[in-house]
Amino acid sequence: MNISTLSLFLVFFGGGMGSVFRFLFSKWIKTPITDFPTATFITNILACVVLGMLSNYLGEAKQENEKIMAALFMTGFCGGFSTFSTLNLETYQLIQASSYQTAFLYCFANVVLGFVGIALGFWIINLLK
Q1: pTM flag (> 0.85)
Q2: If you average pLDDT over residues 34-61, what whole number do you get?
Q3: Which residue in 18, 43, 103, 119 has a CA-CA distance of 20 to 30 Å to 86?
Q4: Would you tell me how many other CB atoms lie within 10 Å of the CB of residue 75?
Q5: For position 3, what pLDDT does the model report?
């Protein structure tokens, strides 16, 4: 396995950007009165759409510029921006608070709409080609 210093830096930098965007986004999207974790939910779906678009656009990233874009945005930015661990923590907290229906809805909606987000990303890039 040949991992370049540039690739490591791009993943590091992209992950930092994604994390900062997630933090700002969570402050911008105010959680409504319900206990549903809206900011994390929207962040996860948006990250799926972006990842789907990038995956479709870059394909297997054979050219050097595609590899750079994949490291920076797919692995780095989307990895830092998406919040799978937060999704699981919030689900656990909902269960601890006996909000079983909300916990189920939250998990189910993240998985299903995350998949739809990936498909939407592919569809958007196919339209632009």
Answers
A1: no
A2: 86
A3: 119
A4: 18
A5: 80
Tokens (6 digits) for 5: 């210093």
Rounded Cα–Cα distance for residues 105 and 97 (Å): 15
Cα of 25 vs its chain's centroid, Å: 12
C-beta separation of 61 from 18 below 8 A: no
Of 32-46, 59-73, 101-115, give the range with the top mean pLDDT.
Answer: 101-115
The span from the CA of 91 to the CA of 21, in Å, is 22
Please give the structure tokens belonging to residue 9.
């830096």
Q: How confident is the model at residue 34 (pLDDT cuts 50, 70, 90)?
A: confident
Token pair of 60, please?
């297997």
Distance CA 53, CA 60 (A): 13
Kindly report the three-state secondary structure assignment for every residue of the chain: CCCCHHHHHHHHHHHHHHHHHHHHHHHHCCCCCCCCCHHHHHHHHHHHHHHHHHHHHHCCCCCHHHHHHHHHHHHHHHHHHCCHHHHHHHHHHHHHCCCHHHHHHHHHHHHHHHHHHHHHHHHHHHHHC
Give the Cα separation of 116 and 72 in Å (integer): 23
